[in-house]
Design a protein that fits this description.
With 283 residues, the protein is of the alpha/beta class. Helix content is 45%, strand content 16%. It is built from 12 helices and 11 strands. The chain has a 5-stranded parallel β-sheet with strand order 6-5-4-7-8, sandwiched between helices. Strands 2-1-10-11 form a 4-stranded parallel β-sheet, sandwiched between helices. It is elongated, with a radius of gyration of 20 Å. The chain starts with 18 loop residues before the first strand and ends with a helix.
Length: 283
């Protein structure tokens, strides 16, 4: 059994005999357990790890701005981003001041996850975007007067999110973006190549993506292996699940239509439930 085939065999359950590939890293075992309890055979291949930004000085400078000259608004795209920023603030000795600044600043979040991340710290968002996407944030803010406002914007990875920043500037606001975490490769390229070969060979029934970075890494390795076209075709034949519209949009951008996207609740359990219902239906 190869390293990529590190999986649990199930002999019973609604998904018995179904092989599902999981590129997840942070909550891999939780995700795998949800599927294995339904009898699925899980192929673990975490593609992306999340780490703090290496630019500590830039993060601390942004936090100092948020505390000493509070923004007119704060926008959080992810719960991970809020948690990472709070961790930086704690290590810099200004966590209480940071949370006080958040509590006193009108805050918009892209979806429910940032609100859940904020709750243990005693703060909460003032508004949730109309849809958990960049377009949802823009739609929510479009009817508001942003002219002259200083807006702190939490972004992630190396994603500049030009669409959001350009909208804010066009609306007359001054955007102050911050990138508190970065993505790194979580699995050796050889393991990812094995997964690609299995997808091309039709040995995987379904694959479930929980982030844009996972999609990008898989396709990047496929390109490096000169198998990108074959990989795209394999993904079109495979049941592809996306945790929500952001990941679904990333797949669409690469010519891949996700088969399963939860309706309205973009978390791991709804994703597993939606995937299980689809797999049972096609079985």
């Amino acid at each position: 059994m190869s390293g990529l085939e590190d999986r649990t065999h199930a002999v019973s359950g609604a998904l018995a005999g179904v092989r599902v590939a999981l590129p997840e890293s942070r909550a891999l075992e939780v995700f795998a357990g949800l599927l294995e309890r339904r009898g699925a055979e899980v192929w673990r291949c975490p593609l992306v790890a999340i780490h703090d930004s290496l630019d500590q000085a830039a993060i601390e400078s942004w936090l100092a701005s948020a505390i000493e000259a509070p923004f007119d608004r704060l926008i959080f795209l992810t719960g991970e981003g809020f948690t990472r920023l709070t961790g930086f603030a704690r290590r810099a000795g200004c966590e209480d001041a940071w949370l006080t600044a958040v509590a006193g600043t009108p805050t918009l979040v892209r979806g429910p996850k940032p609100g859940r991340a904020m709750k243990p710290f005693g703060v909460q968002p003032d508004a949730v975007a109309a849809a958990p996407t960049t377009e949802g944030i823009i739609q929510t803010l479009s009817a508001q007067d942003l002219h002259g406002q200083r807006i702190g914007v939490q972004l992630y990875g190396a994603e500049p999110n030009r669409r959001l920043l350009d909208f804010l500037r066009a609306a007359g606001a001054e955007a102050f973006p911050v990138w508190p975490y970065r993505y790194a490769d979580a699995a050796e390229t050889g393991r990812v190549s094995e997964l690609i070969e299995a997808l091309i060979a039709g040995q995987v029934d379904a694959i479930a993506f929980t982030s844009q970075a996972q999609v990008r890494r898989l396709l990047r390795v496929g390109l490096a292996d000169d198998r990108q076209d074959a990989l795209r075709e394999a993904l079109r034949r495979t049941i592809v699940a996306a945790i929500g519209p952001v990941v679904a949009d990333e797949l669409h951008a690469h010519g891949i239509t996700p088969t399963v996207v939860p309706d309205g609740r973009y978390f791991m359990k709804p994703l597993v439930s939606a995937l299980a219902r689809h797999l049972q239906a096609v079985a």
